[in-house]
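Subject: design request, 784 residues
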């Protein structure tokens, strides 16, 4: 395919020859209705260099994204990339021009700017087409349009206009092909090398994945005895021959790819490579197809070993109220004084009228921000403790998280290190319980943070802005009840006094939540900290009831669990399973109760353990059953609206957690393979060519949104510690940076940018690193 910019000189000569097709000349045939055939104002802009707003101009890599075809009314047709051009093939063209169209949206146009439009097009027979630049919604203002005549050989068309409408950040360039433009009979129309250029527009730097290898692998590696899949990004329809090459260049396995065609969540044309049967082990392997080759990777039993400990180290590195010191910090650049010593005496927001302060010191910072939020602490604690509990109950290896296995100050205290790390947060959650004799006695404060978002970078010890406790909430209180109950049974043999404290706090929290069942945290409380809003706490109540029942055996808790509408529930992706992309998140926690029940499996309590286990397996099977349909073999589907939400990588990891537990319960390989597929996606087998984990892989995450690990913003701050997972693609692009770098219109798996300013696609947080730990620790144990 031609490169428009290299050919610019040739093009201008060609333009003279094609003057009859210029948008600023009258076309030979008027278009439908009263719409003017041509809208052109001002002189044509002079374009030097690349100022093209069109994000996929040439279709050279086989992908149409972000172009879409629209077929409506009586028209019948579909579009795809063929031989490096984007082609609409139609059996019927419908009645009006827009019944058949090819379109590119999310184009930022600015009032008064001059625009050049160019495209190459041809058709299977002589027809007309109507390229136009217009507003997407009412009143559908047309900024420019022209009717052009297509021949059977490619011709270059051009036009220009000055933007007379108001600024429009989401305009579209569409090429209408339907109705009277096409006439009767089947047709094919192809477009290529499309330009909508504004000399004042500076295109963002091309994303990394455009220079990425076309063969995508798990960038750290594969387990010798397990499923090994890679993705080959190619529009070819025929299978290709792949080779697995070792570090010395010898071919050690070979096979054929499986072409899967266009994959919607990624926008990529893909082939699957399955090299599971390869038996070689070592490092420095690559996959090769013709001239293309993957990043190097290992095939080894221990690929997840170091990573699981780094995933756990995330929590030490984000501790509040303690100096990070050597040797635990791993390197002097990650040491720092204790953060937020003033948290030892925190006031409530003035409107709450507390006549006391609270010691809210300790715990983990939530994320890139320094807030502390009970509901997010709750699910994070549960996830880490659940891993511990499954090792003790389901035949796992508790030795992997025993005393001396982590690098933390408590590593020689006789208690398992995983429990020590979690206790740092639990102690904070216990402190956040409203004292006896005060309003909301026994409830938990929902959160504490500054009153406006703090600057970035900012190390925790540099932060000086006052922080306040926000109103207690029923959700936070039930989180405290749940995790304190869970802790009470896990510390029973480790530290009986602490276990007792936890049980007492859990019972008090439960009673306080029963007395205050509807103190709900609103979404509007989002200045200076996240809202962690929740307007339905029936799932929290069920989860807390189960944890308390499992720990105490009390009939009242058993009854509260059994009578809940969530009893034995785990939301799943099918509509009849609740239509949830993932079983749990900080707001939706019934699965935590059911999973704890399935894991602890009390013999003596009248709770239906077998049904809870069957539910784990049922939902895991649904996820596993969908992996083969995903181009990148990831156990996460787009939702009904075709989107991935904020923190989508944590959905992948929580689905993997459920798959892992199903494997624990059944031993079925299907589930273990599903965990591996999720892991492969996170570690680089994805359309962004991104290892979403800091410090791991050929293209590791480098610039997460974090106030201390802020090297990208300021050289005097450290880079991120290894082992932190990014929230990953978020279709809603909820920060200005993501919106500004050409992401609008992205397919769900590509709505991501590795930049510190993109908090809605690239933040890191405790409730996402917790399942990263769970999954990598599980694999390090089970996939060997
Ligand atoms: O993970 C949270 C996500 O589900 C929400 O959509 C989003 C907006 O409320 O907030 C996310 O949580 C952030 C929290 O509000 C503040 N600390 C950082 C968290 C991770 O991005």
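Subject: RE: design request

Done. Sequence follows.
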């Amino acid at each position: 395919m031609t490169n428009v910019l290299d050919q610019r000189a040739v093009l201008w000569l060609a333009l003279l020859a094609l003057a009859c097709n210029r948008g600023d000349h009258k076309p030979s045939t008027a278009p439908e209705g009263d719409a003017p055939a041509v809208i052109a104002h001002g002189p044509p802009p002079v374009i030097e260099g690349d100022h093209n707003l069109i994000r996929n101009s040439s279709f050279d890599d086989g992908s149409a994204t972000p172009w879409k075809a629209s077929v409506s009314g009586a028209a019948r047709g579909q579009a795809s990339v063929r031989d490096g051009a984007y082609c609409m093939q139609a059996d019927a063209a419908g009645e009006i021009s827009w019944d058949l169209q090819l379109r590119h949206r999310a184009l930022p146009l600015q009032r008064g700017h001059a625009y050049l439009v160019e495209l190459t097009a041809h058709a299977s027979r002589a027809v007309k087409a109507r390229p136009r630049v217009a507003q997407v919604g009412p009143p559908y203002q047309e900024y420019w349009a022209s009717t052009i005549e297509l021949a059977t050989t490619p011709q270059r068309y051009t036009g220009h206009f000055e933007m007379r409408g108001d600024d429009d950040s989401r305009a579209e360039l569409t090429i209408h092909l339907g109705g009277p433009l096409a006439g009767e009979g089947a047709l094919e129309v192809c477009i290529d090398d499309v330009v909508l250029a504004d000399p004042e527009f500076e295109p963002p730097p091309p994303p990394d994945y455009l220079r990425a290898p076309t063969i995508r692998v798990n960038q750290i590696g594969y387990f010798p005895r397990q499923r090994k899949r890679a993705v080959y990004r190619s529009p070819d329809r025929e299978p290709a021959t792949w080779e697995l090459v070792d570090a010395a260049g010898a071919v050690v396995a070979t096979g054929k790819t499986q072409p899967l065609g266009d994959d919607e969540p990624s926008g990529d044309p893909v082939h699957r490579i399955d090299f599971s049967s390869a038996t070689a082990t070592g490092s420095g392997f690559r996959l090769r197809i013709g001239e293309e080759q993957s990043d190097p990777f290992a095939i080894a039993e221990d690929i997840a070993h170091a990573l699981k400990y780094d995933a756990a180290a995330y929590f030490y590195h984000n501790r509040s109220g303690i100096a990070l010191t050597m040797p635990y910090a791993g390197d002097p650049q990650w040491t720092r004084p204790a953060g937020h010593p003033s948290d030892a005496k925190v006031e409530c927001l003035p409107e709450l009228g507390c006549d006391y302060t609270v010691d809210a010191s300790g715990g983990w910072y939530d994320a890139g921000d320094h807030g502390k939020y009970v509901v997010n602490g709750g699910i994070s604690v549960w996830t880490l403790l659940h891993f511990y509990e499954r090792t003790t109950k389901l035949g796992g290896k508790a030795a992997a998280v025993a005393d001396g296995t982590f690098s933390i100050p408590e590593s020689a205290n006789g208690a398992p290190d995983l429990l020590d790390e979690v206790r740092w947060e639990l102690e904070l959650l216990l402190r956040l319980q409203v004292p006896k004799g005060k309003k909301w006695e026994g409830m938990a404060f929902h959160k504490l943070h500054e009153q406006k978002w703090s600057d970035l970078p900012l190390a925790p010890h540099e932060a000086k802005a006052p922080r306040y406790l926000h109103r207690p909430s029923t959700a936070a209180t039930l989180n405290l009840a749940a995790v304190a109950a869970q802790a009470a049974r896990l510390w029973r043999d480790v530290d009986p006094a602490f276990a007792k404290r936890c049980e007492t706090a859990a019972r008090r929290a439960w009673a306080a939540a029963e007395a205050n069942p509807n103190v709900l945290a609103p979404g509007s409380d989002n200045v200076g900290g996240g809202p962690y809003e929740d307007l339905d706490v029936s799932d929290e109540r069920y989860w807390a009831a189960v944890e308390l029942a499992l720990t105490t055996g009390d009939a009242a808790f058993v009854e509260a669990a059994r009578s809940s509408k969530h009893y034995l529930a785990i939301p799943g992706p099918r509509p009849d399973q609740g239509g949830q992309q993932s079983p749990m998140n900080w707001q939706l926690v019934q699965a935590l109760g059911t999973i704890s029940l399935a894991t602890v499996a009390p013999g003596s309590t009248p709770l239906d353990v077998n049904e809870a286990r069957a539910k784990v397996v049922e939902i895991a099977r649904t996820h596993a059953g969908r992996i083969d349909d995903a181009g990148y073999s990831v156990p996460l589907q787009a939702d009904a609206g075709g989107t991935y939400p904020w923190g989508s990588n944590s959905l992948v990891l929580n689905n993997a957690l459920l798959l892992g537990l199903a494997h624990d319960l059944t031993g079925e390989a299907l589930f273990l393979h599903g965990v591996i597929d999720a892991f492969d996606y996170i570690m680089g087998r994805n359309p962004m060519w991104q290892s979403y984990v800091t410090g791991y892989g050929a293209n590791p995450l480098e610039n997460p949104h974090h106030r201390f690990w802020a090297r990208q913003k300021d050289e005097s701050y450290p880079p991120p510690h290894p082992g932190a997972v990014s929230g990953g693609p978020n279709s809603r692009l909820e920060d200005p940076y993501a919106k500004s770098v050409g992401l609008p219109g992205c397919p769900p798996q590509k709505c991501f940018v590795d930049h510190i300013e993109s908090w809605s696609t690239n933040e890191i947080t405790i409730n996402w690193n917790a399942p990263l730990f769970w999954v990598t620790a599980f694999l390090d144990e089970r996939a060997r």
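The chain has a mean pLDDT of 93.
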